[in-house]
Amino acid sequence: MGFFVETLIGGLMAGMLYSLVALGFVLIFKASGVFNFAQGAMVLFAALAMARFSEWANIALGGDSLFLANLIAFLGAGVVMFIVAWIIERLVLRNLVNQEGATLLMATLGIAYVLEGVGQTIFGGQIYTIDVGMPKDPVIMFESLFEGGIMINKEDFIAALIAAVLVGVLTLFFQKTPTGRALRAVADDHQAAQSIGIPLNRTWVIVWCVAGIVALVAGIIWGSKLGVQFSLATVALRALPVVILGGLTSVPGAIIGGLIIGVGEKLSEVYLGPYVGGGIEIWFAYALALVFLLFRPQGLFGEKIINRV
Amino acid sequence: MIYRENGQFKTTYAADQQIFTIAQDKWFVLGLIAFAFIGVPMLADEYMFRAILIPFLILSLAALGVNLLVGYCGQITLGAGAFMAIGAYAAYNFMIRVDGVPLVAALLLGGATTAALGIIFGIPSLRVRGLYLAVATLAAQFFCDWAFLRLGWFTNYSPSGSVSISNLSAFGWAIDSPVEKYLFCLLFLVAFAFFAKNLTRASIGRQWMAIRDMDVAAEVIGIRPMWAKLSAFAVSSFFIGVAGALWGFVHLGSWEPAAFSVDRSFQLLFMVIIGGLGSIMGSFFGAAFIVIMPIFLNQALPALGSLFGIAISTAGVAHAEFIIFGSLIVFFLIVEPHGLARLWAIAKEKLRLWPFPH
Questions:
Q1: Cβ–Cβ contact A299 with B under 8 A
Q2: Range of the domain at A238
Q3: Contact between A227 and A239 (Cβ < 8 Å)
């Protein structure tokens, strides 16, 4: 029983991390109807920027304060992500208004290539580490309840906490601030939003910027867990089933979807994997999402798809 | 000015329903095929065959298949690489498990197996559409990646995980030199291209297009969506499967699942979008663009660098390739969202009136 709960909790933590990446997809899809395949590349780009900035800041500061170096790096990487968002809007999205979904999808794939290339040219293509001072040692909890207790990775726990806080902040931002309301208006109806004076282009920059910041947070957490390297870009492919399971247009959907996928992956790998040779995590997530889709084609929390002739 | 279609009158229905109704078009295509069969083997060298021409032919075939599904039936797929893998491994298993099966039969059986599995993986399309479907097809991709890596039966329990095929021969014709491989692939491609062209002109192709343009309306006028969508999946998978088998047998010779990764799927989708959705001609343009571009960049960038006295490292070249490739894709999508086939059509239109456009 203890082992089962341990796997379950591990799955929930992993799911929280998937949600972080999935959140980036949802934000952009909601506001601009673009399915952003470049989210993984953005995570890689942001993590690279963060890793290198913190390295450089640490040298510049003489290695005194890791916290200060990380803070500077975070702000720097945030600015970089803002510039990236601005350039993408200016050079790509603005020229592709009213194109078909497939075309926009391909355009974001092109952006992904460019980001991967530029990121590695500027920041280098080696493996870097991000050290934000997260504790790595596991803790044993609930020893009274289960025999031997449950081992929880502190790092995972903090990561999940950060993710939860981020989601809370984003929800507040979307519900309470004027900018958030403008974003929701644009997501609802481009033309109506434009007609009441919401500038579309600026809104898109903001939304890509927010997605960039989310990518940065995801990049820091994933990066400090796995190291910053090229394979970080493929994290988007792991998060895709989360998005379609939760629904492309729903922020809570991304969170719940992430948790379901995280738990499903871990449980299937532990209990089903040994019978079929292991390594089933990645396609199991997709299969799980597919099963959900067969019953609810718009995802768990997505807006109902209405067909008009 | 190059040619006019006026004065070419049709007096029978048969003449009116030919593939190429304009004589010049027909002669141009026939000339092109003749050049591909006779001229190219005389002109190209071995490197050209290995690096450019054979990949181009096989990927064109795969792109044709993807275009039938995405361009004609409107079902976005990101699982094309998986279908290539299924074709390759199915054909391999027919080759080694069935005694005396001829090469061509094995390739076609590989395609047929892919078609059967394509129908299964196409079932979600009855329920979900658009981007949801695109992601759903990724399930096929990752499942196949896993199955061919982990399940030993498919690779005949090869210890290294890679499988190989040698001594290809069809109808007593030993296919071992690059020229012969090229001609073998070309035969397949020409046959399948005409097959595809005729399919899209026939009732089944029209059903696909109706479904693509508006599926509810198509249903109302009596087209069965299930039949149309699943038949598109089957035919497209058949094409892609045969292409995959050719890729493994003829181009690679020995391969492992990584040869058909998700990158291949993206690549194939790029081909049909850059080439032109819903255009047979576009599949060829797209394949040529995607095959030649990386090779060209690989050659041109270091040369360009040395011109300015900058030595570009191998990693630098790889990154620069990424950047240029990505920007070109975005550029093409912005400038001509309907693909290279549209540019071709515009050029033809202009040439008709040239040099007196008014």
A1: yes
A2: 2-295
A3: no
Is the residue at A32 inside a domain?
A: yes
Look at residue B139 and tell me whether its pLDDT is greater than 80. yes
Contact (CB<8Å) A91/B214? no
Domains of chain B: 44-353 (1.10.3470)
Strand partners, A153: A138
What are B135's two structure tokens? 């992601």
ipTM of the complex: 0.80
- pLDDT on residue B204: 92
Hey, which residues does A128 pair with through a beta bridge?
A: A228
Contact residues, A window 256-275, toward B, CB-based 8 Å cutoff: none
- Examine residue A154 and state whether it is found in any structural domain, yes or no: yes
Q: Please report the residues numbered 6 through 45 in chain A whose beta carbons come closer than 8 angstroms to any beta carbon of chain B.
A: 35
CA distance B212 to B291: 28
In angstroms, the CA A205 to CA A83 distance is: 9
Least reliable range by pLDDT among A60-74, A135-149, B21-35, B160-174: A135-149
In a domain, A306, yes or no: no
Q: Are B150 and A278 an interchain contact pair (Cβ–Cβ within 8 Å)?
A: yes
Is the model more confident about B93 or about B318? Answer: B93
Instruction: Reply yes or no on whether the pLDDT at B62 is more than 70.
Output: yes
Q: How many other C-beta atoms lie within 10 A of the C-beta of residue B82?
A: 34
Q: Is A207:A31 a contact under the CB 8 Å cutoff?
A: yes
Q: Which two tokens stand for residue B307?
A: 């011109």
At B103, give phi and psi (nearest 5°). -60, -50
By the 8 A CB rule, do A22 and A167 touch?
no
Residue A69, token pair as written in the block: 């170096």
Give the up-direction half-sphere exposure of residue A203: CA atoms within 13 A in the CB hemisphere.
Answer: 27
Say if A303 falls within a structural domain.
no
Q: Which of residues 75-94 of B touch A (CB under 8 A)?
A: 76
Chain A residues with CB inside 8 Å of B319's CB? 116-118, 120-121, 125
Closest to B108 measured CA to CA, from B187, B51, B225: B187
Q: In this structure, how many other beta carbons lie within 10 angstroms of the beta carbon of residue A61?
A: 13
Instruction: Please tell me the total count of domains within chain A.
Output: 1
- Please, are residues B198 and B225 in contact by the beta-carbon 8 Å criterion? no
Q: Residue A160's domain is classified under what CATH number?
A: 1.10.3470
Q: Any idea of the CA torsion for A229, A231, A235, A240, to the nearest 10 degrees?
A: 150
pLDDT of residue B3: 67
Q: What is the pLDDT along chain A (309 residues), one digit of tens a residue?
A: 677 777 888 888 888 888 888 888 888 887 777 788 888 888 888 888 888 888 888 787 776 677 788 888 888 888 988 999 889 888 888 888 767 777 788 888 889 889 888 888 888 777 777 776 666 666 666 666 665 566 677 777 777 788 888 888 888 888 788 888 888 788 777 778 888 888 888 888 888 888 888 888 888 888 877 777 777 777 778 888 888 888 877 778 888 888 888 888 888 888 877 777 667 777 888 888 888 877 877 777 777 766 666
What distances in angstroms separate CA A241 from CA A13, A260, B163, B294, one per listed residue? 17, 10, 31, 31
Strands annotated E in A180-277: none
Query: Which of B327, B328, B340, B342 is the best residue to mutate to test the A interface, defined by the most A CB atoms within 10 Å of its own CB?
Result: B327
How far apart are the CA of B128 and the nearest CA of chain A, in angstroms?
5
What span, in angstroms and rounded, lies between the C-alpha atoms of B181 and B176?
A: 7
In a mutagenesis test of the B interface, which of A90, A293, A296, A308 is the best target, namely the one with the most B β-carbons within 10 Å?
A293
